Every structure is written in C-alpha cells, then in structure tokens.
Amino acid sequence: MAVPTKEEDEDPPISSTSLLSFDTDDCSTSIPPKPPFSSVIFTPLILVTCVSLSTAIIFAYLFFSHSSVSFISHVSRPLQKLKHPVVLLISSDGFRFGYQYKTDTPNIDRLIRNGTEAELGLIPVFPTLTFPNHYAIVTGLYPAYHGIINNIFLDPNIREPFTMASYDPKWWLGEPLWETVVNHGLKAATYFWPGSEVNKGGWTCPESLCKIYNGSVPFEERVDTVLNYFDLPNSEIPSFMTLYFGDPDHQGHKVGPDDPQITEAIARVDGMIGKLIQGLEARGVFEDVNIIMLGDHGMVGTCDKKLIFLEDLARWIKIPKDWIQSYSPLLSIRPPPSYSSKDVVTKMNEGLKSGKVKNGQYLKVYVKEELPDRLHYSESDRIPPIIGLIDEAFKVEQKSSKRNECGGSHGYDNAFFSMRSIFIGHGPKFARGRKVPSFENVQIYNMVTTILNIQGASNNGTSSFPKTILLPSH
Ligand SMILES: *[C@@H]1O[C@H](CO)[C@@H](O)[C@H](O)[C@H]1NC(C)=O
Ligand SMILES: *[C@@H]1O[C@H](CO)[C@@H](O)[C@H](O)[C@H]1NC(C)=O
Ligand SMILES: *[C@@H]1O[C@H](CO)[C@@H](O)[C@H](O)[C@H]1NC(C)=O
Ligand SMILES: [Zn+2]
C-alpha cells in the first residue's frame, strides 16, 4: 500500500525536459552517493568522461537541430489550426486504475502511446467520492477547502442538506476552472461536471455552453456537442471544455470491479474516446487539443459480508442513527453538542479493539483533528467531528439486515491502490509516450492554467508541478 506523501508530489522535474540532464543520466546514476574507498579515485575520472560526453552530445544536438533531422520534441508542439490553446478535460466516473487492461481499448491506448500517462494512476483526494473529487480536480483544493466534503452532507451553520443537485453558490467554495477561464476573458464550456451548473463569479452557466446534469443524455450526444464547439469560428472555440461519462462507476456499484459488465462499460467508454478522436481528426484539430482523460476514483468489491455494525458497540456507547451523517465507506458522526467527541471516540475504539465486536479491527475512529495529516480532512465546520476510517472493502451499518451486500464501493482512504484512477494527457503540451509517477488530482488545476497561460487562484497544488508534467513552451 503506497501512502501518497508530499515528497512524492514534489519529485524533481523529470529530466527529459532538459537535454543536459537527460543525456548525462547514465553517468550520474553510476556514481554512488557515498562511494566506497576504492571508487574515490575513479569518480573524478568518470565525471570527466561524463562532462566531455555531454559536451559532445550538446554540440551534436546544436548541429543536428539546425539541419532538417527531426528530433524527439523537448518543447511543446506548435498549433496547426487552432489559434489558441484548448484543454478538453474528460472524466470517466469510477475508472479504476487497471481497467484499461480489461479489454482492448484501442482509442485510450492511442492517447497513452502518444501522450503522457501517470504510470500507476491518479491519486484521488479523501474521501474518494465523486463530488469531493471532481470538484478537487477543477479547483485544485482539498474538500475541506472547496466545501464539498461529501456527496451529501449537512452544514451546521447553513442547517440544510447539501445534495448532488444543490446549485446554490454558497456550497461551492474555491474557484473552479470554468470561472478562472471566463475571468480571464476566455470561453469555457461544460458538458457536465459537478459544480458546473452553479453561477459563480464571472461564470453564469450560459445555456449554449453549459449543460444542467441529466444522466440520461446519451454519451454520443455529449461527444457530438463537444465536437460541434470546434466548428465555431476560431475566436469562439472555448479554451476549456469538460466532458463527463457516468460509466463505469454506475456498473461498478452494482456488480463490483471484476464483472464482465465492467469490461463492457470500458469498451463503450473507449468507443466514445474513439468517436471523439475521429471527430477531432476530421476537423484537423486532434493534434492541437490538449486532452486530459482521467477518473475521479477507483472501485473495490464489497462482497462476503465484510460488515461492521454500530449496534454491536452498545456495551461501550450507544450511537443512535441520527448522529450519523454517512456510514460507508466514509463513516462520519456528529454527536449532539452535549457529548464530548473525544469521549465518544475513546469508547468506540475501546469496543472496536475489544475483540468482541465482529470485524471491529477493520474500523478505526478519530476526532477529525487527529486523522492522518495526509488526508487533509479537518479544516471545515462541514466535516463532522468524528470520522471513521474503514478498511478496504468493509462497510459500516447500523445493524444487521437481510440486504444483499455484494457490489462495489469507493470513498475509502486514498492510500488504497484500488481507489486510484487514471491520468492521460495528450496534445501539444504533453510529451509522446512518456510515463510519470502518480500524483494527487489537486495538481490538475495548475496544469490546466499553465497550458492556457492564465493566472490561477491560490490552491493546494504545487506551483512547480506543471513543469514536471508539461513540455516547456518553445
Ligand atoms: C503518434 O503520433 C505520430 C506523429 O504524429 C503519428 O505518426 C502516429 O500515427 C501516432 N500514433 C498513434 C498510435 O496515434
Ligand atoms: C434528460 O435527457 C433525456 C434524454 O435526452 C430526455 O429525454 C429527458 O427529457 C431529459 N430530462 C430532463 C429533465 O431534461
Ligand atoms: C489549501 O489552499 C487553501 C487556499 O489557498 C489554503 O487556505 C489552505 O491552507 C491550503 N491547505 C493546505 C493543506 O495546503
Ligand atoms: Zn465517481
């Protein structure tokens, strides 16, 4: 289980952006950090060799780059037909990392082979749920700061429920990409994305460029609409577009990640990517568009009665239903103000660790301030004071029932590999055939503003991150 850390996010730029370090890589790695005595004498020799080799390579490069020999591109490729950079952000909901190997995906493979891929997937934010993650992708903020801390929740100050159809701007904090883009006088278009229906700042969700969510709209229609934006006069073509597919999440919940229905759904999503590529090629703009294809989270099977019942804790503490904001896979509890959260947590954990609660060892409860820092899940009144971390594939319920528990779920700790999704970037700003280490999706915001050459709002991404992923401008 690889725990994402800040250090991992801040990996130094991959050396292929710099000719010198690229070509001397082999030399530098052959020098151990603490050379044993015998190699001390040889190190200077190796260094001298490296330096002279690099010099030779630089001269060779300067010589050939002035001739017509075509070199692997180290800078972003010039636009052929479009007059300004365009980013098309595509989400396939619940596209767990690895689904791309379930079946032939010739179209996604085209993006991967000629684009930049997070080799072991994209790391979602915690909780690994749809709304918190989609909104983290477009704001660069962790849920505690962008306000959408769950798919459904109560704000103790607003005292009304947030649902996935709440379009009042009071819920949606931070500055989503479509807002940043229009604030800079550029155009944005959204074919579905959580939060895109909300009027905020300069963004008014204009009818021709912004669709109100309706999951029944056929995927084909969504792709065709996006393609039509490229038929507009050049100056009218939106600089930023979103496209959203609710599959394979939809199937994943019903049948879990390893059912043939998932394989079918993947083939269908791949077909939509194919339709999109074809349409862009027909318009002569495929190589001009920066396509970012990703998912919001992964999926894990929840079969075999891997259940924990809160009722079983009654000997230690009674947890009534109305304290619970969500059960699974994010357990969040708001006891009445007369209770000490710390006390409730202590009693719950006592019970869970006692060996007398079925599957108790698979749940650990925290006051939110004591959750691991890497989850960034405490700095908001909206986050209930008590949060439970549930082990992969387990579920928490009030009490035993006859319900069928088999299916799939997500929302768990973002350190679980099963919660990872995919990241592929294809287009003028992305190197062809490049693999990069996994990163958290809060980095996407700065990546998009960098491609569009606009100043983004402050956020939780690392400002130096885009240059580790994108080709530098020429
Ligand atoms: C990758 O790009 C090159 C250069 O444009 C092109 O010739 C090739 O057909 C592309 N490969 C795929 C798999 O799309
Ligand atoms: C949602 O889309 C379907 C398919 O296009 C359409 O028949 C239906 O009327 C739409 N619903 C709403 C509320 O617009
Ligand atoms: C995230 O970004 C917000 C807005 O810039 C900032 O207030 C907050 O301190 C940041 N949090 C972390 C953990 O970086
Ligand atoms: Zn989702």
Automatic annotation (TrEMBL):
<feature type="region of interest" description="Disordered">
    <location>
        <begin position="1"/>
        <end position="21"/>
    </location>
</feature>
<keyword id="KW-1133">Transmembrane helix</keyword>
<protein>
    <submittedName>
        <fullName>Ectonucleotide pyrophosphatase/phosphodiesterase</fullName>
    </submittedName>
</protein>
<dbReference type="GO" id="GO:0016787">
    <property type="term" value="F:hydrolase activity"/>
</dbReference>
<keyword id="KW-0812">Transmembrane</keyword>
<dbReference type="InterPro" id="IPR002591">
    <property type="entry name" value="Phosphodiest/P_Trfase"/>
</dbReference>
<dbReference type="Pfam" id="PF01663">
    <property type="entry name" value="Phosphodiest"/>
</dbReference>
<keyword id="KW-0472">Membrane</keyword>
<dbReference type="InterPro" id="IPR017850">
    <property type="entry name" value="Alkaline_phosphatase_core_sf"/>
</dbReference>
<feature type="transmembrane region" description="Helical">
    <location>
        <begin position="41"/>
        <end position="64"/>
    </location>
</feature>
